[in-house]
Design a protein that fits this description.
Elements lengths: L16 E4 L7 E4 L42 H6 L2 H8 L5 H14 L4 H21 L3 H21 L4 H20 L3 H13 L20 H7 L7 E2 L3 E2 L3
Helix pairs in contact: 2-3, 3-4, 4-5, 4-6, 5-6, 6-7
């Protein structure tokens, strides 16, 4: 089954269009359809479809708005249960604060799957924010690689729920970019394979400069051959997704 394009993280929610990108890549602009009127949902309702337009600090599956409120105190962290901390992280805007809350949850329950999934999202948010908004590419590698490793561990236990698959696939892709930049070419191709196994098919891989060290490799070209061909537009030849 074809996955939606893997969206990356932006600084603001765009109402007129969706801007998609991955670390180290150029910008992909896609026009979004006019907003549809939807029935009101209870606060905090999970919404898998919203994973298609994920933005930094706003998880793809929580309809309640995140807040820029005061950080949770250390005392509050101690008093709250792991489940309560996970819920609080989903309503917190800043990636660093979400990571702090989720690590506290995992200190209480190291195997809490919800906390680990949300931590994967928060780490991916932090890494892309460092790389794209602050131009701190080297500093971005650590959280991006940690997100990928967390995705790998979660997948080894059981399949990742659909609404988190885009994040996991993106994490593997960004890890591949990191490894390519660091000269770890075999490892970079391995990470790309993991991304493709989760349905990553964003054509930005075709001209991502961070993957240039891989382009002469046969195994990399084999991955490119797996990309879905662009649709045909009548009278205009091959189109662009």
């Amino acid at each position: 089954m074809r996955m939606p394009r893997v969206p990356q993280l932006l600084a603001t929610v765009l109402q007129a269009g969706a801007l998609q990108l991955v670390v180290g890549c150029g910008w992909l602009i896609e026009e979004a359809p006019p907003p549809e009127v939807e029935e009101a949902k209870p606060e905090g309702t999970l919404d898998p479809d919203s994973a298609k337009l994920r933005v930094p600090g706003k998880p793809p599956f929580v309809t309640a708005p995140r807040e820029r409120g005061r950080p949770i105190s250390d005392e509050e962290l101690k008093e709250m249960t792991a489940a309560e901390l996970v819920d609080r992280s989903r309503l917190t805007f800043e990636a660093d604060e979400r990571i702090r809350i989720l690590r506290a949850a995992l200190e209480k329950e190291p195997e809490n799957r919800d906390a680990r999934l949300e931590l994967m999202v928060a780490l991916e948010d932090k890494g892309t924010d460092l790389a794209l908004n602050h131009r701190l590419r080297d500093e971005s590698k650590r959280p991006l690689n940690e997100a990928a490793q967390l995705a790998r561990e979660l997948l080894a236990e059981q399949p990742i729920e659909d609404r988190y698959l885009v994040v996991a696939a993106t994490a593997f892709y960004n890890e591949a970019c990191n490894r390519s930049l660091d000269g770890q070419l075999d490892e970079a191709v391995a990470s790309l394979r993991e991304a493709f196994e989760l349905g990553f098919d964003n054509p930005i891989i075709l001209d991502d400069p961070e993957l240039d060290p891989l382009r002469d490799r046969e195994d990399f070209q084999e991955l490119l051959d797996r990309l879905s061909p662009p649709p045909e537009h009548p009278g205009s030849g091959a189109g662009i997704e």
